[in-house]
């Protein structure tokens, strides 16, 4: 395995192979196998462009051969930073087929993050768009190249600057399929080797690099696809960044293609874009997130379109409140499927045939029988079912360590190799109920407040469009709860009105928010997670300013 990565212990690896989790097939090999069964079926749609499976594989192999001719060597790291366009799909599979390791950056990342990824990975290549909106990635790439000695080549989807390489020219230059395959025959892929690197959440510090192998990531995608009911009839519409684990392989793009389905790339996530596409392309599954779902439910657009094809709207990244799950099912006439997990490994999914309680309340079951789960207290002792604690996991697609990060590995893993998720959960048997991140538990003078729980109560208020609860500093109690609320259009909400509503729920008084902030929008990460850290900092600064003024 690539130096700097921690392999699975051999006894575990043998068991995972014997039980069929690890098939010994590469990520592009699984795509080629799916294409061989249905070469003429449409695989990818983007605007008016429609590619069959045979055309997709041909483009992937041609670009992979061009990457080899450009000098990429096996296990070279290449930062991949493209939006949701066909070039992302080609470059992702092609880099892996060429033996390189794509490092999956998000389009919102800028100089500091990208330099960190390139330096940490020792990356020799960087794949970018030319411009997105008013930002020029080419100029950023040149500044970074001047500061990063390992970075040799910049590949551009669009018009390159001098010294950069055009992806379009690489794809369009004459090369027969036979010539491409002859070049690639010299590149053998070990299914047990690192295939790509994902990024840790990085909401409080620069992201760590997460090495995923062919074996574990193919299983991750296929098993998630099975539990999402993916088949040749699936029409998946990713909206969030494809570079994120959720939209890439949980189940995402890879699972849809491995199952022989069709992937429709949406140019934006607003209702005016999404719902006409559902009708036109007969979309059946959408991986979404809380901000998107909340916006759609507060739009009048859905009623103007035929949504009869829509079977499932998935939610990932942050827990969707039961109130919103119920409204989603009623409003769009589809199943809400909660997906909880991490780029480091464990994925938990609510099954499509689950009962109403699981659909509305839970975060599902781990996807694999060999996902080992423990819920631990602050002293690393297992707690009884129903008691909140930190989720720790081990299994056939959960990493055993970050790339080149021994100190982080000591902090992030137990002595016997369980990954510390950092999430507070309760479990009943293997059914998981998330209660937020450890830092999302507000400690009010020793009384613990679950932000998730209180947010769910507030979502039930008829004037509330969206809400998030954060800790604010307090000299007496250490922390108190502050509710940031986005009201429904035309509505106003007062603090006393909110507290009266919550008191009627008969919850403990210490759980009641002690401040209300009305806002127009929440700060969010590139994958749609609400950045609570920014809100905590905002309210802390506001309180400090108010104290000074008195």
Topology:
Blueprint: H1 10-18, H2 27-37, E1 42-46, E2 49-52, H3 53-69, E3 77-80, H4 86-97, E4 101-104, H5 111-121, E5 125-129, E6 131-132, E7 135-136, H6 137-147, E8 153-157, E9 165-166, H7 167-172, H8 177-184, E10 194-199, E11 209-213, H9 214-227, E12 235-236, H10 245-249, H11 252-258, E13 262-264, H12 271-281, E14 285-288, H13 290-297, E15 312-315, H14 322-332, E16 335-341, E17 347-349, H15 356-361, E18 365-366, E19 372-376, E20 389-394, H16 406-412, E21 419-428, E22 431-437, E23 441-444, E24 447-450, H17 451-459, E25 464-474, E26 478-487, H18 495-503, E27 515-518, H19 532-549
Parallel strand pairs: 1-13, 3-4, 3-5, 5-8, 8-9, 12-13, 14-15, 15-16, 26-27
Antiparallel strand pairs: 1-2, 6-7, 10-11, 16-17, 17-18, 19-20, 20-21, 21-22, 23-24, 25-26
Helix pairs in contact: 3-4, 3-8, 9-11
Q: Care to describe what's here?
A:
This protein is α/β, with parallel strands linked by helices and 550 residues long. It folds into 3 domains: 138 residues, Rossmann fold, CATH 3.40.50.980; 218 residues, Rossmann fold (3-Layer(aba) Sandwich); 105 residues, ANL, C-terminal domain (GMP Synthetase, Chain A, domain 3, 2-Layer Sandwich), CATH 3.30.300.30. 35% of the residues lie in helices and 24% in strands. A 5-stranded parallel sheet has the order 4-3-5-8-9, sandwiched between helices. The chain has a 5-stranded mixed sheet with strand order 14-15-16-17-18. A 4-stranded mixed sheet has the order 2-1-13-12. Strand 25 and strand 26 form a beta hairpin. The radius of gyration is 24 Å and the shape is globular.
